[in-house]
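We modelled the chain as a single entity of 116 amino acids. Its sequence is:
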Amino acid sequence: MKVEVRRGDASDPLAGVVRFTAPGESPVDLVVGREDWQRELLARATPEDLGEGRVPVVTAADLVALKLWAGGPQDAWDVDQLLDADPTLLDTVEGRLATLPESCRESWRRILAARA
């Protein structure tokens, strides 16, 4: 397996990205955040067995937060699909919005308006 580490500079919203590439497999990027709210969601993550090791997996509500932060059209679609799959996410995400950047709250409002 090949591992490539790319560090973000001071102006980058990411601390960096680690790309894992195995022959015959699609590459996997591990995004490394630098904000307090990102550390908080990792603290809530649950260790899960994934093949040869255990990795922390964020909750569905925290996945929504990450998707809101990413802010792309695919991310908005993903959030919409997650809300369709589990409507109880709405209240959990609403409860965590205050800890997220304003851009996340703006994305959330747009997604909810499109669902109305």
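As a brief sanity check on the tokenised model: Strands lie at 2-7, 14-21, 28-33, 46-50, 53-57. The chain has a mean pLDDT of 93.
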